[in-house]
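Lecture notes, structural biology module. Today: joint structure prediction for complexes of two components.
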Amino acid sequence: MKVAVVRFWGSNCDHDAIEWAPRVLGLASEVIWYEERELRGADLVVLPGGFSYGDYLRPGAMAARTPVMEAVIAHARRGGLVIGICNGFQVLCEVGLLPGALLRNQTLTFLHQEVVLRCETAGSPFTAGIGKGRLLRMPIAHGDGNYFADAATLSRLKDEDRVAFRYVDAEGGLDPAHNPNGSLDAIAGILSEGRNVLGMMPHPERASEALLGSSDGAEILQSVLGSFQRA
Amino acid sequence: MADPKVTRALALQHGLTDEEWEKALSILGRTPSYPELGIFSVMWSEHCSYKSSRVHLRRFPTKGPRVLQGPGENAGVVDIGDGWAVCFKMESHNHPSYIEPYQGAATGVGGILRDVFTMGARPIANLNGLFFGRPDHPKTAHLMKGVVAGIGDYGNCIGVPTVGGQVTFNPCYDGNILVNAFTLGLLRADKIFRGYASGVGNPVLYVGSKTGRDGIHGATMASAEFSEATEEKRPTVQVGDPFTEKLLLEACLELMAEDVIVGIQDMGAAGLTSSSFEMAGRAGSGIRLDLDRVPMRESGMTPYEILLSESQERMLIVAEQGREARVREIFHRWGLDAVAIGEVTDTGRAEIFWHGERVVDMPVGPVSDQAPAYERPMREPAGLQSRTALDVASLPPVAPAAALLALMGHPDLCSRRWVTTQYDQTVRTNTVLGPGADAALVRIKGTTKAVAMSLDVNPRYCKLDPFEGGRLAVAESARNVACVGAKPLALTDCLNFGNPEKPEVMWEFARSVDGISEAAAAMETPVVSGNVSFYNETNGVGIHPTPTIGMVGLLEEVDARLDPAFKEPGDAIVLLGETFGHLGGSAALWVLFGLEAGSPPSLDLSAELRLIALLQELAAHGLARSAHDCSEGGLLVTVAECGLASGSTLGADLSLATRGLSPLARLFGEDASRAVVTAPRGGEQGVLETAARLNVPAAVIGTVRRERLVVRLDGNPAADLSMAQLRAAWENGLRPIVG
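The predicted structure, tokenised, for the full assembly:
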């Protein structure tokens, strides 16, 4: 499996994302500059977190209009795998690969904290190896992570089993007190219609070794590799 | 618009003294031009010249086997082995943060980040020391919200984690808050970049953002007292753009990976003026600049304005001759300007042109490193003796449980969660211990090492005894670093004081410097960088002396670390160090009785060194399960914090003997050189034996238990609280301020 990480001007989680596959899977990451139009044969494309263009417009709005995103869209339309983390999720919503939008956090402040996620479906390459109902611990770090979609979109996401992760309490229960940014239906991550694109606000790449407090995030990449090898 | 005529009166308006004006005339042998007057005024401002502090700062120990770069550069550099080094510094952004809290604090972070990456280091950790006025002051909430958001937004956007710091409230900061920003970066020990303009004919390049009219005379503003009229100075506060700084960071580091740069310096305070004069001054060279080539954000700017602008996110680079094209190529890739605006000369003069006309012609040395330096008069403040007189026996008795709840819920001691959740603490995937630990711990990838960092100062101690307060700040920050298992290596400082023209302030400053020097020498932690901020006064009232210490330590094996959280019920709790029950300057006196009185605890540096060695040994040999510095608030607050750090599920059963001390002194006294550690049941013997071997007093004072904190004094019940109750008080402490 070939992994590529897209680097926009202000991607500040680029190094974290670039080091993710080598650390977890022992696979190298290609780095793709935002001006490139080719993904160099990547099977999995990671859109990292950060403030791709400073977020002075809507987060992700500028990145959505870069040359590399045309290639990412084409890759996704062909069924290629894409993970957008944090700002990467915002970019995926801006280009329309994922539905909905990420609004300002309900607190109106940036929020960094550890959250507990519940895996809501095993039906994707990213979650097949994790399993429905499993709890994962990892940090969030964003100012605009409050997921929103209209009622029709939300019910479609649910009907099609496309909610990948929800924010839950330590026991795995839904609780508004544990939905830090006020996301609709406690949604932390969603899948595309083809289930080959995942967008999530929490940072699995920051929770992929025990030294940093959690290695749960590694399971997402391990799941992708497992699915890839079976395919 | 024609420049105004330069006269003595105009010079005085620019903040020069009569004496300095005469000196300027004699250096030039003529009346300065208007831009030259601007240069004198900023270069000789307190902020840039350290004219009141230089003679004192010489007393700091600055050398050591690990010091690769001491004071005098953009930041200090310390060797951590295996070819790696860390570069760090702390700087104040006090006045701008009071006038415009969001931008003031944000640009403070931006400035210190540039100081570090200009040395060739990638910033990997930010910390900050914040000092606000009394919690119920009408401005405190506004200032705190703005400062925290400004710090967060800047660091979060550029992608440097904020991993720790200090937040303190005191009425002395009502009209003059302090924002002290610390950054640490990582670099190869043999790839340090410095601010040298050397090599005759080498091009001088301007890189980064364009120049606007913002921040003109920011350095001069930082060199005068405050008054109501200061609100009018809002235009002197710079506006930060962390996204551009991110581009500048990446472009600079990319450029530094190639052999292109001779010297590089941030355009910080006093902008293009200070960077060009300081770079030429260090190299003993001259510099020629064509100001009309400076990229400008607005039209109609004058040479005076361009020279004094403090627009952010700019750097001055001296490149190898013939390599300008490569510099431009890299910067353009990151969307930034890179323009050759001059060259290095051998004249020893700064010659600055505007459309071919010479507007500045000054000798570099006399303006930069030979700036005025003053031995200002000093006098011990009247009334200090009466302040330090404290009759503890006259204090009414307190109920320990109520006192503990009051302390844990006080803004000085309560949870910082509202603040720290606004900071990205884990970006760059190095954060092993973040806010809440005694010291932040950031691992160094590709090694087994981690770097520990702690900011500390107790302004109450410093007010009551600046010498002892300075020593205690160094000792406590070193102890904090040792509590995670690391060895203290070196420190940076941010010395925040009132008006140095007042002999009492100068006395406090000199005494603090002496205290820091003595402790730093004893700890073998040299001062490698720092900053002085004077004139922290509003309407004639100065702040408490606040010499913030930023201590950096090294943990060779990151797996052998300690944190403050209790781990298992039944673990033995051991108090290290000696308890005298000292209440002078304590949090208990302040929170329970509103008293800032007495003298701070006395510090035995050799006892402190033994404790620090013990803590490192306990960590290295896995003898302890947790460790926490016992300082502000005393023993009971420390134990409560260890329980809260466990997620509030664990508390303690403590059994203490009063040994002639009042319950207040026994439970809440603040003695130096103490720490609370835990060991697994039966493992306490190992702790006690190691302590005995290193000659540190140690005693088992209780055991870790579930859910409650129970205290017995001389066998009698003294306090019994649920951890949930303590947690509620602790978590809601900032609520009255920030909602």
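Point to remember: Residues 503-523 of chain B form the longest helix (21 residues).
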